[in-house]
Write a structure and sequence with these properties.
By secondary structure, the protein is of the alpha+beta class. It has a single domain, classed as HIT family, subunit A (2-Layer Sandwich), CATH 3.30.428.10. Helix content is 24%, strand content 22%. A 5-stranded antiparallel β-sheet has the order 1-2-3-5-4, with helices on one face. The termini are far apart. The structure holds guanosine-5'-monophosphate and zinc ion (ZN). The site of zinc ion has 6 residues, from helix 1.
Length: 116
Amino acid sequence: MVAKECLFCKIVTGDIPADVVYSDDDVLAFRDINPRAPIHVLVIPKEHLDSLASVADEHRDLMGHIMLVAREIAKDEGLGPSGYRTVINVGVDGGQTVQHLHLHLLGGRALRWPPG
Ligand code: 5GP
Ligand code: ZN
């Protein structure tokens, strides 16, 4: 199911272009339009889910799949040896600005901890 006014659903349907690095039946990954690191990829479910807070037991396999896709992309992007970070922002305090669940994959430079 896609949500009509959702930016990332429009990327899933191809109505908004994106630099796609991975796609399968359930998951899409594309480069962030405003990268915060040399490699910054967003991994999303094709099904519209507002956020991690909306995820239910039925999405257990999907969430595991998203994590493994992120790991494979990291490997393909050459981030294996140097390491990388995966982040899911949730809600206002988490800094979530797009209300379609997405996992950030960031790498290619040393990342500070904790984030601001
Ligand atoms: P959030 O702040 O919700 O965790 O992350 C949303 C991310 O989506 C941000 O890093 C932002 O740069 C990215 N973004 C917003 N609009 C677009 C877009 O139209 N295309 C792409 N590729 N990324 C976008
Ligand atoms: Zn959506």
